[in-house]
Batch of 2 targets.
Target 1
Amino acid sequence: MKIAVVGSGALGLYYGAMLQRAGEDLHFLLRRDYEALRRDGLIVRSVHGDFHLPQIRGYRDSREIGPVDLVLVGLKTFANPVLVDLVRPLLGPRTAILTLQNGLGNEELLATAFGAERILGGVAFLCSNRGEPGEVLHLGEGRIRLGEFAAGLTPRAKELAERFCAAGIPCEAVADLLRCRWEKLVWNIPFNGLCALTGRDVTELLAHAGSRALVEKMMTEVVAAANRQGLRETIDGPAFIGQLLTMTGQMDHYRPSMMIDRQQQRPLELAAIYAEPLKRAAAVGAEMPQVAMLHALLDLGEEDFAG
Amino acid sequence: MKIAVVGSGALGLYYGAMLQRAGEDLHFLLRRDYEALRRDGLIVRSVHGDFHLPQIRGYRDSREIGPVDLVLVGLKTFANPVLVDLVRPLLGPRTAILTLQNGLGNEELLATAFGAERILGGVAFLCSNRGEPGEVLHLGEGRIRLGEFAAGLTPRAKELAERFCAAGIPCEAVADLLRCRWEKLVWNIPFNGLCALTGRDVTELLAHAGSRALVEKMMTEVVAAANRQGLRETIDGPAFIGQLLTMTGQMDHYRPSMMIDRQQQRPLELAAIYAEPLKRAAAVGAEMPQVAMLHALLDLGEEDFAG
């Protein structure tokens, strides 16, 4: 299967490398690591064992790649204004587009440009970081839940999930992508933002009674908003939140990507993870006041008053 | 009048200096600036003109001062656990104690130890910072509203206010100290905490739509809680908040004391400015959810996870 990776960061490089190792025909759209990857290939340093792909097909311009069977989108959502132009040259008549980006609104953006029937979305549970140029670090996890944007469970989604599984990526095709997206937000909204804002990791947040209570309160707000979005099956708040807290309690001083982005003074994915969910919550009368406050404080931090 | 200053920081040194210059008999309990003040006296660098007091009566131990007519308390509230012991040696049969500290709970602490009839409180509107050892910087404002802790408007409060006015400190005696304290909190609770948490000054907070809305929302929460505290006259929320925002809009990149404390890694006055007001609000069923969230985030920042 000819696959193009748009957004070859920690996520795009990791999944692309796994698929290429399994024999898929991968083409990476690159910026930062172009020289290193073309010259030396890609090293994956993984908790499951390191491996090296000596040859990477890397490009600076997606027009050099041409039409593919699948576009895998791993772009940070703050770069979405350029996404449509990056994807367009990759489309043939039957090309599918799978976005593994964070938050809400990514499928809609792609569907508006290219038609809803092309679009799939996936929620990735992956701890990975970029290392030196030409390296990606896989710290843990990696599973994906993917589904159609505009349909239930299709043969296409199932086949894609099987292909990922065959490449060593645990993957499940789901009927309700929207529910998966909101479930992920129940974790991302409190932990990404609070860690980025305060500079404390998830273990430190949970060790402090005040911020732990705040995490729970925000999770409760997000579940309430999610359950008004017309999901096929509602989320059982207390049980699900309990699971998330237990799971997070086992993470050893994990720093969410947004915390790292803030520490490295990169922009944050506020539109997809905060603004769009807040808008959809407000649209159904499910205000999320603590989430709104966190969003305001994070957005304030994005202002460059010195400029 | 023999006056002892307990807590000779930016506030205690400034007011003490003004009173000494007017001929009062001042005695300063000192720590950081002891050597410099004993040797060179005190320099006040003020927007109203600098002045120098060549001789300062400074002490390391309040037992050396002995009984006074008035104890002026300017101690940071996080040092309150030692306040009672610092004040006790200064008391004669008719000594009055005036606390100019921030927030709620200071009068109660002193009243429990020394009797409610001794206690007055004051709300100071003062922009001052410590300079080099032996210097205090007066950046603006300075007026005080003071009143009895356990009575209405008394001759004692009026006389004290007149004495301050005579020393060049605009001062008004009020019948309802509690109302003054809550009015001050309507400003302090949003601006002190948000500036400390985000590292943005008041001008930057007001320039950003999201944080400006948050300031207003928190002010509204505090006014609602204040108006259930049995004040003699309730606070007119919209009008008062409008005034505060206009006034703050005229401050040019002012950094509240709590922001400076956080930047210099000093402890914050969270008990007096957040925990106690939240407790009193909850006691009358006036939850302040945005204030509670801010308190939790500030308190998290006080944790020393490295320790």
Note: Residues 111 and 119 of chain A are 6 Å apart (CA to CA).
Target 2
Amino acid sequence: PDLEAKAGAEARNSQLTKPDGSLGRLEEIGIWYASWRGEARPRIAQPQVAVFAGNHGVTARGVSAFPAEVTVQMVANFEHGGAAINQLARNAGAIMSIHPIELDRPTADFTIAPAMSEAECVAALKVGWDAVDQQSDLLVVGEMGIGNTTSAAAIANALFGGTAADWVGRGTGVDDAGLKIKEEVCAAGVALHGGKAPLEILASLGGREVAAMAGGIARARMLRIPVILDGFICCAAAATLEKAVPGALDHCLAGHVSAEAAHPAVLRAIGKEPLLSMGLRLGEGSGAGLAMPLVKAAVECLSGMATFAEAGVSGK
Amino acid sequence: PDLEAKAGAEARNSQLTKPDGSLGRLEEIGIWYASWRGEARPRIAQPQVAVFAGNHGVTARGVSAFPAEVTVQMVANFEHGGAAINQLARNAGAIMSIHPIELDRPTADFTIAPAMSEAECVAALKVGWDAVDQQSDLLVVGEMGIGNTTSAAAIANALFGGTAADWVGRGTGVDDAGLKIKEEVCAAGVALHGGKAPLEILASLGGREVAAMAGGIARARMLRIPVILDGFICCAAAATLEKAVPGALDHCLAGHVSAEAAHPAVLRAIGKEPLLSMGLRLGEGSGAGLAMPLVKAAVECLSGMATFAEAGVSGK
């Protein structure tokens, strides 16, 4: 972050026509945004939502309430504008891009072998890296991948310890039997790959869309583009970066806390306080897309409001 | 609400390309909105923010951290686009109107006499009533009035009981001595007017901008325009309607819970769960304006998403 821009934004914020601190968290968000953009009075003109899709070998184990072909069907739905994230991106004035990644080639079943080889994981990271528009000034990364809450639970379990039951949840809506299977699959994956380094965990237990999200978040850091994190899967992807390089998510804030059981625990583990808590559990970037207008609002207030002196308003 | 439109929206919601319930609270908001608009597939095309301003006799008692002339200065700031609510209304795509009400004639000091006569209160209610654009499809009412957290605290105390200390807070930022004065003023007002009927309490302890907000909310009900309630003062104004006619706020949802100490208690008393909790305590309609994009997002999802059949996506 740019400390000069931060100091400039703080000075400006303290002179705006409002009682000190009365915009609450909007004030810190505005200042945080300014510090990453290197401007004391920034604007958000080109927000971007990038959605990645991948298929998972573990779906053969019965970990999802939906069949694996839904991944490719939902990609078509994204392309035709019919999914929730299409509406939420438009609502936020964001450009949306869709990145299906080798959907006809699911990852390996991670209970048997690494989900991805190193080369496959790097290729997926690069899809995310390349997806970030250099002109963007606010980024959301979203995902679609039947089976990927199991992948995210295994990543979180491997990174943060505990048992599979601590990290597994109902995803799109599995029943009790499905939940039991998810726990067994997660535990088996962690038994096989749990001791590895964070980015190896990403390759071994993640998926192509999960790796792409990590690549997008890392690329945004290089470009000083602030990121709004989405739900459980996005935060599990992001957590591999934070675990590899503490502070790697300083350019990110948490858009929401989802209804997926272990999302609050992942947020605590990466030190993020969510903006929204509205019971979403859809993925696609939906919770982060919903939060985009809040971040825009924070920046509009910081940069658009008049100061006491400009407006001729008496202070205390 | 229109039960046919509600049933139509519920049916549509259940067929959209997402797992059941996965949009959480957005789903209920969309259905609620549809039921008030009488359309199963509504759109929000013309949101409105109406800001009312009034002056308060009790400011002479030293209840505010800011001098009374700030009210008229902030009205000028609203008119020039420099206040927080200007940025937040623009961020939400809302038209904003500003309604200063007899600023050179403050209400009476309510510790001595009713703040407004019945005729004065009716005139202020009518300002709010007339301010609502019949073409609006989502309304926020905001306020500016140095001293009005004291007025709102007295209203809440009179409507809901307890002691002055339960309802008084720091407003724009009074110190401990100022807080003590607010308590005394509130207690004196409630001692004099507390036993009256809800709309008499509005006249006796309210202010012109407070009455105007109540008028706007009531008018929106007649026009079936859903309303997002703002903070402590807006909710105190709204509470007089709810207390007079239970259910009078069924067309309203709570945009946020503010940092003003007694706002959570007023929200509980009127049975509203806030959408946001971001520590705002500014008034002007700011918290409700911040929440407008969330309500728009809910309606966009309900009305814009494809169904499973339309998109050719497999169900469970």
Note: The domain at 47-297 of chain B is CATH 3.40.50.10210 (Rossmann fold).
